[in-house]
Q: What sequence folds into this?
């Protein structure tokens, strides 16, 4: 027959395991679920926007991996607390234990966190280098932060004039079917599956050129030209916002990138930076071509 002390241990262990599983499954389901915006945020969404570049794909993978670690550690701590509360409660232990040290445990709780940090550090450093080190790029754009809008130039293309990108007001945005405070009157146009170098700078104070679905956030600093890159792997319109608190109209600096097929981009360039038909028709058109292939 089992002693009451053994029974308490078994009950505490079972309760701890149940709590750990519920905590872990709950955190992972809630934390990694939810709707994901494509190129823009969704109402009530809290998860990362869907990836449109290899950098953002890797970034999402590392984010999810770290989230599993966080959920596991939270579940473990919850479970230990539940176990201690049941197993070592005063009623079941009229004579308290005098134990103060345990060499084995101390070694484990020192080494385990170090190993966890190493598991996180390696992929995280790989991603940092992947983001930071420019691959061979096929074209260059320059994004300049002004107070308050973004302007874009194509240094390699003489026939493309500077694009001044101002936000649309509510009425204009609704009329063009674009999201308010994200839609602009001057979008950046780039071809799909192309390595694009982005030079980022600012006229007078700090801004940050940020496109969440590209995994890009690059500071725009006056007097300094920062470099970053992206390779959009799908066509469509991708939105971002200035992500450096830059002043009174910080909220008024949206970013709109239109990724089009290579053929459409060539036509746009040949046309001195103008679409012959509306953007919506072009996107429909290229969609059909992709389906026919
Ligand atoms: Cu700004």
A:
């Amino acid at each position: 027959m089992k002693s009451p002390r053994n029974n308490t241990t078994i009950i505490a262990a079972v309760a701890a395991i149940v709590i750990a599983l519920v905590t872990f499954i709950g955190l992972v389901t809630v934390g990694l679920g939810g709707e994901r915006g494509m190129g823009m945020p969704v109402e009530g969404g809290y998860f990362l926007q869907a990836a449109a570049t290899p950098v953002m794909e890797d970034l999402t993978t590392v984010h999810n991996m770290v989230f599993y670690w966080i959920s596991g550690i939270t579940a473990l701590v919850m479970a230990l607390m539940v176990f201690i509360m049941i197993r070592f409660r005063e009623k079941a232990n009229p004579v308290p234990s005098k134990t103060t040290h345990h060499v084995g445990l101390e070694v484990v709780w020192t080494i385990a966190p170090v190993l966890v940090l190493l598991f996180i550090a390696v992929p995280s450093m790989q991603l940092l280098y992947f983001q930071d080190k420019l691959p061979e790029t096929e074209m260059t754009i320059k994004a300049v932060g002004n107070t308050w809008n973004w302007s874009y130039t194509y240094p390699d293309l003489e026939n493309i004039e500077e694009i001044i990108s101002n936000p649309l007001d509510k009425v204009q945005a609704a009329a063009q079917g674009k999201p308010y405070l994200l839609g602009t009157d001057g979008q950046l146009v780039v071809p799909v599956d192309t390595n694009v170098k982005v030079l980022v700078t600012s006229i007078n104070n700090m801004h940050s050129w940020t496109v969440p679905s590209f995994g890009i956030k690059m500071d725009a600093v006056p007097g300094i030209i920062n470099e970053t890159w992206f390779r959009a792997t799908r066509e469509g319109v991708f939105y971002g916002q200035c992500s450096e608190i830059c002043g009174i109209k910080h909220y008024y600096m949206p970013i709109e990138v239109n990724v089009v097929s290579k053929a459409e981009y060539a036509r746009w360039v040949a046309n001195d930076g103008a679409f012959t038909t509306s953007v919506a028709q072009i996107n429909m058109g290229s969609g059909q071509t992709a389906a026919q292939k």
Q: What stands out?
A: Residues 4-132 form one domain.
